[in-house]
Amino acid sequence: MQAKIKWTDGVQFVAESGSGHSIVVDGPPDKGGRNTGARPMELLLMGLGACSSFDVVNILQKARQQISDCHAEITAERVDEVPAVFSKIHLHFVVSGKELKEKQVAKAVSLSADKYCSASIMLGKAGVEITHSYEVVEQS
């Protein structure tokens, strides 16, 4: 896996993934940025949410659950010192579908957290307290 980061101006950068996708990274105006892109730590949270969401959807599909939607709401706390690392992260999954089995959703979230999500496991090993919750929304 590879990535390239190119400084463009001020505290703005363009990050390019090894697969050729680009994203603007910038800081807030009070830190010299223009607010034209996500902050680096926001990207870390988004990556964690995407990694775990991918697992949850994949596991539920393999379990033949009739999933129609899944989104993750992520909240995080950072320490009040430099470096301002994450101390706590909570992922809340909202999974929608028809006749979903709550036990299967719980299992998918648990498997992602404990076995499959590389980002979550890596951050947990670094001392971040990561918690998970979920809700199931029945669609007719």
From TrEMBL:
InterPro entries xrefs: KH_dom-like_a/b, OsmC/Ohr_fam, OsmC/Ohrsf
One family name in Pfam for this protein: OsmC
Protein name: Putative redox protein
Annotated source species: Marinospirillum celere
